[in-house]
Amino acid sequence: MAERLTVAHISDTHLGYRSLSKEDPKTGVNQREVDVYQAFAHAMRAIAEASPDLVLITGDLFDKKVPSIWSLRRAFRVLRTVQEARRGKPLLLLGGNHDTPRMRESSAVFPLFEEIPGVKAVYGLPERVYLPELDAAVMCVPAASISQLAEERLQLDPDPQVGFNLLAVHGVLQGMFTAEYTPFFLPRSRVLDDRWNYIALGDYHDFRQLSPNAAYAGATEFTTTNIWSESRKKGWVWVELQQGQAPVLRHRPVPTRPVISLPDVDTLQYGSSDKAVEHVLEEAQREQIAQALVRVRLFNVPYGERARVQRAIVEGMANAFHVQVDFRTTLRSPLSAGEQQTETTVTQPVEERWRQFVEAHREKLPAGITAEEVLQRGLAALSAVGEEMSR
Fold first, then answer.
1. Alpha helices per DSSP H over 174-292
2. Whole-structure pTM over 0.70, yes or no?
3. CATH annotation of 4-253
4. Is the pLDDT at 103 greater than 60, yes or no?
């Protein structure tokens, strides 16, 4: 029986993700798509150097079911290079909700990667993959099969005949999100079980260790429609398993484009929109906003002044990659000095409801249209309506 097993757990790389309208000057490809690829490539180079016994990619390798040729070619090259460096040691690839066709009859790109030595893809039915060279078995539950798990039509038990039993699941467990965001949840009792040596989870974009033997690796870049709510540390997980001992988990960060959320500003506190803008720009000077994604939430700016305020803030942070100005309305008294507006004290604006709607329906968008594009167009339309109503 093997005494030790090392695992690199990576997830939710979302290759092909596109956002905003800026292009990389070298390739002409959407800059955010390039950012996402670079984070993935950095993580996989680090994994190749660490040379674990096993690599687990727990879903959403791609952002779409039909990835762009640009991302598909680069993903293949990276994985082939990693496997050459690892001399074909096992790499398991799960299908996620983003990159798995809804119909099993539809084509999927995953079989392509099985042409690379050591790569095994599981994207339809659940499958226990035996790795006799490692004295290990991995029970794989891709996104297409999580309903079986939730409805208790799939029984998960380790195999006592192997030394190391791992469980890999792409799905969101109960309690990972607030009530405002309610995707398909998996009961924790169906997944978390200390009989497994390690439980590798995907779909949730922040690193989160749920128990000594279970963790979400998180994403490698910022790819949701609400990147401001995500943890600022992206990366992958190094796992060391030793017979008779608790797993050792270490989160390995990867560099990403900076994401900065400036403190909330209530115009009522400053007496005028102009003074509120001055404060926002002063706060920006305290941050490293160069080439960063920046957001600021402003409360109680009159509709008629919003276009001018947004223009002033964007121009004042011209060195940022992108500036998002969120206008919100609250019925409470002005913020006191140093106080941060909380979600519970704010009436949920239509803009926030629109964000949640886009996130919930992003999988239904036609090919070539990104959730971020729909989100931004909707926000622009809502702003225009608000300005017209204020006249």
1. 267-270, 273-285
2. yes
3. 3.60.21.10
4. no
